[in-house]
Specification:
225 residues; alpha/beta; 8-stranded parallel beta sheet; 8 helices; 38% helix
């Protein structure tokens, strides 16, 4: 498929979701893991500027191929971070959304980060438990140079929490941390909402929504790590 053909295929979804974001003062991040290059370039030419990767090696490969064609793109990392990959996240990223350990924050220089929160009691999912947020932020503030910009969360199982309750809880956590000085005045961003629930996230004040298949279509099969 050519880039022009991809533009025509994804244009309706891109224009609709951008409009929904503008109505709610949110910003759209295109999640491009395992997406065809023509779809990524098409979304850029349709006006998207924020793009997210979940896998470090895929990010490196993808950006080497197309970064020169997207000169003012802003790159986000949203995947779980392995200690041995942090050197690749030191520079060139607008936001690193998935910080949940002091060890990782120490390795990221002056990166702009969001703290990933684990809500709903999901012990298998990455993220810091809300009860541990204040202590983690204190340690990050005193022991690292990263700049905390807000909080991030992944969707819970649909049978455990309703999306609205989940997003309201993350906003509540953000408000509490800001009121008690744990987050700076410019550190109140909320990164929440994906293809299936981004409208609820926007309704609850999401600054960033992370949308992949609803925006760009079916992903390619890959074993990227």
């Amino acid at each position: 498929m050519s880039v022009q053909e991809a533009i025509e295929r994804i244009r309706p979804a891109v224009e609709r979701i951008l409009s929904e974001c503008q109505a709610s003062n949110g910003q759209l991040i295109a999640v491009i893991k395992r997406q065809p290059m023509d779809h990524i370039l098409a979304s850029y030419r349709l006006g998207l500027r924020d793009f997210a990767h979940s896998y470090v090696q895929e990010a490196i490969d993808c950006r080497q191929q197309i970064e020169h064609e997207m000169p003012d793109a802003r790159w986000h990392f949203i995947g779980r971070i392995q200690s041995n990959k942090t050197r690749h996240l030191l520079e060139g990223w607008h936001r690193v959304h998935s910080i949940d350990r002091l060890k990782i924050a120490r390795r990221l220089g002056r990166a702009r980060v969001l703290i990933q929160v684990r809500l709903g009691g999901e012990h298998s999912k990455a993220g810091v438990h809300p009860a541990e947020l204040e202590a983690l932020i204190d340690h990050i503030g005193s022991e690292t140079q990263v700049r905390i910009k807000g909080l991030m969360a992944l969707p819970p199982p649909r049978d455990s929490w309703g999306e609205a309750q989940y997003f309201a809880e993350l906003a509540k956590q953000r408000d509490h941390l800001m009121a008690h000085g744990y987050l700076p005045t410019d550190g109140g961003e909320l990164s929440m909402g994906t293809s299936g629930d981004y409208l609820d996230a926007l309704a609850h004040g999401a600054n960033w929504i992370r949308v992949g298949t609803a925006l760009l279509g079916t992903r390619l099969v890959s074993n990227s790590t």
